[in-house]
Please model this.
Amino acid sequence: MRRILDEEQEQRDILEDERELLQAILTELRTGAPPAEDIGDELEDLIGERVEITVNFGPVSGTVIAVRNDYAVLEDALGRFVYIPFASIQAITRLEG
Model:
């Protein structure tokens, strides 16, 4: 009996994982943007690098200073800090130099 209960729990866990994956895919399809955790991971790899981030209103360029739970902080060419919510990000491009 215990084995059957363990198997049922394992099946529920697998179904929950699949549901979360499908939800992330649906979100990406609806918004055209990758899930926030993917954006955060990509931006963390770019801390200290110059990037151009395309958002809803156009491109924003600067150096990635920090990455938080749901936004990134860039320092632009004038030394101003620009806060960009992950939900607004459409594309990220690393700039040379």
